[in-house]
Amino acid sequence: MPQDKPSTVAGEYPAAERSAVELDAVKVAYGDRDTSYVAVARADLTVRRGEFVAVVGPTGCGKSTLLNIAAGLIRPSAGVCRIDGVPLDGLNGAAGYLFQADALMPWKRAIDNVAIGLEIRGVSRSEARERATGWLARVGLRAFTDRYPHQLSGGQRKRVALAQTLILEPKLLLMDEPFGPLDAQTRQLMGELLLGLWSEDRKAVIFITHDLEEAISLSDRVVIMSAGPGATIIGDYPVELERPRDPAEVRHTAAFARLHREIWDHLKSEVVKAYAQEDSR
Ligand SMILES: Nc1ncnc2c1ncn2[C@@H]1O[C@H](COP(=O)(O)OP(=O)(O)OP(=O)(O)O)[C@@H](O)[C@H]1O
């Protein structure tokens, strides 16, 4: 068999060339023809397999909109979103989500909150609970499996939510300000936990954040969006900081400071524009 023969699925790119996510000239307009609001004028973004991409941009520029496109929750008004080389049609079943507000069920214990996704997929209750116990241990909650969400701290609830997402082994992680409500120290610890788990199998990640330090400390690339309306992607910075990486420690390096300066110089004017536009809307 020839060494270089690509494995193909009819009508798609060769497997090796497929990206985890490809936004190709994606436009998003909300509302109808009379009240149309173009949130994103054009987004071109490729996230390679195994790549951790952070998206930053001023408030209201369309970061969540792009994530919702990749999730299949909304359809582009123009352009196409491909997942693994295939145009997305409907919900993206290969993706796991983590949002600012967690999706824990208050009436279920941590273990059952983590196990439920597997049970819905037909895994037996005993096996689902066994795997959930393993996941809770991996996120440092071995001693908390029987707690209800209201008996957990904000950071602990986030850990349960992370286990709830990762137990389903998504190929792609879509994270929208996942650590937003947490205090600064807990955010850093969550970042460290996330990177540790991510490095085990390197899923593709799109991570939305307002926090540029968080973006740089976690990701392989930081993508900047312009202020809306009609936002576009205006910057794409590789983060060439060594891995494995301690996201708290790396912030103290000179390379980090240089990159932060460079990206912030670019982002700052968009943030100012966004505030001015919000005032006049
Ligand atoms: N369903 C909708 N209908 C109308 N406009 C919407 C809708 N969803 C979002 N928008 C508008 O589209 C723009 C982009 O919103 P989006 O939530 O994607 O921005 P964002 O960058 O994630 O914001 P933030 O950083 O504040 O969370 C905003 O001006 C918002 O008001």
- Estimate what percentage of residues fall within beta strands: 15-25%
Strand order across the biggest sheet?
Answer: 5-4-1-2-10-9-3-8-7-6
Radius of gyration, CA atoms, in whole angstroms? 20 Å
Mean pLDDT: 91
- Categorize the overall geometry: globular
InterPro entries: AAA+_ATPase (IPR003593), ABC_transporter-like_ATP-bd (IPR003439), ABC_transporter-like_CS (IPR017871), ABC_transporter_ATP-bind (IPR050166), P-loop_NTPase (IPR027417)
Keywords: ATP-binding, Nucleotide-binding, Transport
Pfam families: ABC_tran
GO molecular function, one term: ATP hydrolysis activity
Report on this model:
This protein starts with 20 loop residues before the first strand and ends with a helix. It contains seven helices and ten strands. Helix content is 35%, strand content 22%. The protein has two domains: 17-94 and 174-280, Rossmann fold (3-Layer(aba) Sandwich); 104-169. It is an alpha/beta fold. Helix 4 runs parallel beside helix 5 (184-201). It binds adenosine-5'-triphosphate. The site of adenosine-5'-triphosphate has 13 residues, from strand 2 and helix 1. Pfam families: ABC_tran. Residues 21-252 form the ABC transporter domain. InterPro entries: AAA+_ATPase, ABC_transporter-like_ATP-bd, ABC_transporter-like_CS, ABC_transporter_ATP-bind, P-loop_NTPase.
Features:
281 residues; ATP-binding; 35% helix; NitT/TauT family transport system ATP-binding protein; transport; single chain; alpha/beta; ABC_transporter-like_CS; globular; 22% strand; binds adenosine-5'-triphosphate
